[in-house]
């Protein structure tokens, strides 16, 4: 058998690449290395701009040329780093060599020894991961998440008045509206959105074991904690003042747990919409040229929601693993986080793919109001709750002598299908006041929705 040419092992880099490609800009190995170069360059510029160790600030042209290494980072730099790492066997050292090489090309050898000055590799790594994760979440994942919420919100508002039979424990229950049920999910997702929006992205910059030991020996008079804080915050991150060699990764655990939580709510949405489709509550809009089944030409399968389910489960498993393992490091540092963090893009990639499918799926369904109304009309027994509640109110008000309203309705409705005529006859014979009797006789399953439609307004403005 002829071997295949080299193939992507992950479906995120193969079949589903188009849906997640924007994440690669940040969470790929190349994205990480570009961020590492950026941190190294900015540290050089910080040191020289403050005249540390007798250095002089770079000219505007020199500064721009050095930062151009980050702006122009591409295949040539990726290949050069691979050459360096083949010798160093150390990814961050390879980045240092690349920056030093660039300094030499720019005639800046005079500041070469400030490259990676007083840094442990993790000083560069933790800041680079914080930058890339922040950019990926804020610029790629969150906009897609917000898009799904907005689509769902529009459906909730569109169908706010569409009555539907509820199903608690899978059985017919007090009616609601489709819009209200979708609004419940919008509210849940927006609460988590606020939490993710408020996430901190922490960084440390304090040397081999976090105590600035080498820094103090190099310059005992410098205020190294202040310098560290200024530098970390200049990168748009929150400074962590107390760490070991590594930044403790607690912010990552918090973020990934929140994203996994959002995924679980979305998973609940996907299974519910799938179920509504199977019940006929939603019609799927056929897509031109699409095939539902290789043998049954009539089918339009809910593949968007099935795909989302699976990818949310994979994403949650990875995010949970990241959140639980990254917070532990033996003594002052071990290397388990290095491999673990290289899977952040995979975890967010499966989540992003699920979001893409849910968004597409929600735009490819249409409410089947006829099916909703037919289901309501076939389940008049759900009015039993309303009738027994009204009787109890009438008994309390002294307008009825019925001794056990719940038992009375249980006998009439439990496990039975009864229609309008049977309920009307039953209500007409009740020992209750005329006003209550008229309210119950006018009640139908499609009108027994309480405040469901107006509850959609509780969403307020989009967040």
Catalogue the unreliable spans: none
Name given to the CATH homologous superfamily of the largest domain: Fumarase/aspartase (Central domain)
**Mean of all residue-level pLDDT scores:** 94
| Tertiary shape | elongated
Which fold name fills CATH's third level, the topology of the largest domain?
Fumarase C, Chain A, domain 2
Number of helices: 19
State the end-to-end distance. Answer: 56 Å
The CATH first-level class of the largest domain comes to: Mainly Alpha
**Order of strands in the sheet with most strands:** 1-2
Task: Give an overview of the whole structure.
- By secondary structure, the chain is mostly helical.
- It folds into three domains: 21-119, Fumarase/aspartase (N-terminal domain) (Fumarase C, Chain B, domain 1), CATH 1.10.275; 122-288 and 297-368, Fumarase/aspartase (Central domain) (Fumarase C, Chain A, domain 2), CATH 1.20.200.10; 378-454, Fumarase/aspartase (C-terminal domain) (Ribonucleotide Reductase Protein R1, domain 1, Orthogonal Bundle), CATH 1.10.40.30.
- It has helices at 17-27, 29-49, 60-71, 75-88, 91-105, 121-158, 178-197, 213-218, 224-234, 250-279, 303-325, 336-341, 344-362, 369-377, 384-396, 405-413, 420-428, 434-442, 452-455, and strands at 163-168, 171-177, 202-203, 238-239, 282-284, 365-367.
- The protein has a two-stranded antiparallel ribbon with strand order 1-2. Strands 3-4 form a two-stranded parallel sheet. A two-stranded antiparallel ribbon has the order 5-6.
- Strand 1 (163-168) and strand 2 form a beta hairpin.
- The mean pLDDT is 94.
